[in-house]
Amino acid sequence: MRQTKTKLPQKSGKNKPAQISAQQTIPYLEMLKDGICRVRDGFYTKTVEYEDINYSVASNDDQTAIFGGYCSFLNYFDQALPFQLSFINHRSITGKRHRINIPMQDDDFNSIRLEYTDMLKSQIARSNNGITRSKYITFGLPATSLSEARPRLERIENDVVGNFKKLGVAAYPLDGIERLSVLHGQLNPGSRERLSFTWGDIPKTGMTTKDFIAPTSFNFKQGRTFNTGPSWGAASYLQIMASELSDRLLAEILEVDTEMAVTMHINTVDQTKAIKMIKGKLTDIDKMKMDEQKKAARSGYDIDILPPDLVTYSKDAQALLSDLQSRNERMFLLTFTIVNTARSKQKLENDIFTLAGICQKYNCALKRLDYQQEQGFMSSLVLGSNTIEIQRGMTTSSTAIFIPFMTQELRMDGEALYYGMNALSHNVIMANRKRLKAPKGLSYKRTHNKPTIQAVSLFVAYRKVKKRKKTKADKYLIVKLYKKLNRGSSQCQKNASLRIMAISNYA
Length: 507
Known about the structure:
Helices cover 41% and strands 20% of the residues. The protein has helices at residues 22-25, 60-75, 110-126, 146-166, 176-187, 201-205, 209-213, 248-254, 271-299, 308-326, 345-361, 373-379, 396-400, 450-466, 472-486, 491-504, and strands at 5-9, 15-19, 30-31, 37-40, 43-50, 83-91, 131-142, 171-173, 218-219, 226-228, 231-240, 260-269, 331-342, 364-368, 392-395, 417-421, 428-431. The radius of gyration is 30 Å and the shape is globular.
């Protein structure tokens, strides 16, 4: 663990420990306007944010196609291009929540408007809209100077956005202020304040970008938890023990309604080195087999009887070698960490217990990073820097099983209407159809339900009549259809008649 205190010689001859500031704890050197970050000397990174697509509700063929495309996406990165996948659940900042605006009018239907407003507030409160889920990919490369790193990073950025586009995923790179905003949200969990920073503030104040995003304090003295400002946090890593994983593991982790950052640091192993390493392991296993057979011959029992673990290891190593040589698979080294934050220690422990239960269901274990909380928290930042040396060897398909797609959200900013709840993400659907590619609306009901079709037709007809001066024939038609609908036995017909008269003002 990196020490948070250093000793400096004083003039009095005594050594007095000097505190390292919160700004010095944040592991990067410089953030540029175009989004390039100099993490350390000779290493530069960029970040791309991408949206979700409909994977969970897709058919099996579509899921297979998305999974194959995501495998090809992972194979794009070579051993000289480490990358980081970040999934951040954080509280919505002020001004991002939906605001309900149904003004009261001078008529007899304000009670209905109040009831509808209360229903919308209840739906939004029960949904997960308090938690915003963001997805990022950060990639970096070594370079001697910024002028050398910039064109290479821009080319990689275009390739990454293009590969996402092939999957039907919308992606866009983050500039410097957007990356600082993401870091500000991670370093100040629970806060709903926006980042107040412009590039002109640096020469005016003499401060650096770290001064604007750093919290009031860090405390990493405890072995299993830490404090960032008033919030509690804990860093853990995922111990993968299962021979086969499910694509629901990552989705269920991200569905937990809590603030956290799920991070996957992935390094590609050179294909030649990976094959050579697997062959070396097979040689070691064969040597162990020979030793067991010699021991069996000396003891006088059948030499074909081998320990079960040795047989299992041999089969797994041979299957892995076959995948690397003939199935377009590559070898990756994966570091999977989860950082939870909460306002109280009890809430933090409850969230970790919930996540541990989800991991246990898929034969994995969530282990706390004892006395490595600082390294775990700093490795979760969208900087592409990993200081956790716990890695798991994975192939392309086993890495792609942590597929980051679930369901696409429909939440439009500005003026929008409520269209129900997303059955998978449990978020409200807010949209303005006039801003869609096909702004026309369609009212559909079963064809044999004649009164309802008449009600829909009346609504359409009334919208046309409303634009001109109404005649006696228009009034007669509305009243006649109202009476016809009101004679219906179903509650749907009676409600439709009431809505018609409420709009037409002829009741």
